[in-house]
């Protein structure tokens, strides 16, 4: 039977590092508060690069790892909530830069769950058509959307991109299941108004003089999101284990969206498993939204932490609200 598996991973993190101490020079915050409440120690910041640049570099790294050429790619999906343009999509521009001439390319917007949504879409396209190889990328330049006067969210996010190549063949191991879901009733809990959105449509007089009110910011009801994230992480792990008749002890690693160490510790406690089962790197990169899971996956792959036959669970949750999980046998 044809299976679909990961044949390569990659990532790219911009060079510039911003420590918590750096942030404390421009806003009323400090390293101790940020570390204790979030587990974040620093983040990367794209200065002269955009979402497309980060995505392209992560894609090149994943293609090298998969030993494929750009023209081998049939499907190219970028998950992002910080695209450089409304049009063209990030994916179209990455296709052009890579010369992935045979790929159908498009973006997906599902906030921090974007990579899982993109993975599900890519897997479905491979399953349902003649397509063989898909390049799935999560790329974010969150710091370009941050309002550095809002300490509530400015300390949480960083920039980066991760990518994976999945392929259809006579594989026994691979993607066993992917689950995605949305709950629009929580849409107001995490918001990033689009520049030029209805909020900006601010015409002051009959001559239609346009007045911009610069809505660039990330808003979050932190405590509500905390409750949502912990609840949904625990239930998604339990559900996927039950569905596949597995126990948590059968899982080598859970690779969660890297939002906050306290969310992860809480979920581990509820699942009665050591926090070490949850792979984390938010101390170095902070929350890179849709990029966090593929960055973590590539880091694990590069460190040799993943062996053939290992069961891993990917766990995403984020604005929308969106959430999703994937069970993979490596
Ligand atoms: N530095 C210092 N003090 C701060 C900062 C900061 N950066 N931000 C807030 N504070 C202050 C507040 O003003 C408040 O002060 P007060 O008591 O004098 O009013 C105090 O710290 C506590 O603020 P809370 O917002 O209640 O802090 P809380 O303990 O809830 O922690 C946090 C905030 C870390 C955001 C928490 O709610 C959380 O982890 N939420 C989960 C959401 C998350 O991680 N989202 C990631 C992005 S969304 C996603 O990826 C799905």
Layout: helices, strands, pairs:
Layout: E1 3-12, E2 16-19, H1 20-24, H2 31-38, E3 42-45, H3 51-66, E4 75-79, H4 90-98, E5 104-108, H5 114-128, E6 133-141, H6 151-154, E7 159-169, E8 174-182, E9 190-191, E10 219-220, H7 222-243, E11 253-256, H8 261-270, H9 282-285, H10 292-302, E12 311-318, E13 322-329
Parallel strand pairs: 4-5, 4-6, 11-12
Antiparallel strand pairs: 1-7, 2-3, 6-7, 8-13, 9-10, 12-13
Helix pairs in contact: 3-4, 7-8
Bound molecules: acetyl coenzyme *A.
Acetyl coenzyme *A binds next to α2, α6, α7 and β12.
Helix/strand order: EEHHEHEHEHEHEEEEHEHHHEE
C-alpha Rg, in Å? 19 Å
The total of beta strands comes to 13
- Cα end-to-end separation: 17 Å
Question: What is the helical fraction, as a range of percent?
Answer: 25-40%
How many helix segments? 10
Rounded average pLDDT: 93
Order of strands in the sheet with most strands: 1-7-6-4-5
Please name the CATH topology of the largest domain: Peroxisomal Thiolase, Chain A, domain 1
CATH homologous superfamily of the largest domain, by name?
Thiolase/Chalcone synthase
Structural class: alpha/beta
Low-confidence stretches: none
Tell me the major beta sheet: 5 strands, mixed
- Which shape, going by the Cα principal axes? globular
| Overall domain count | 2
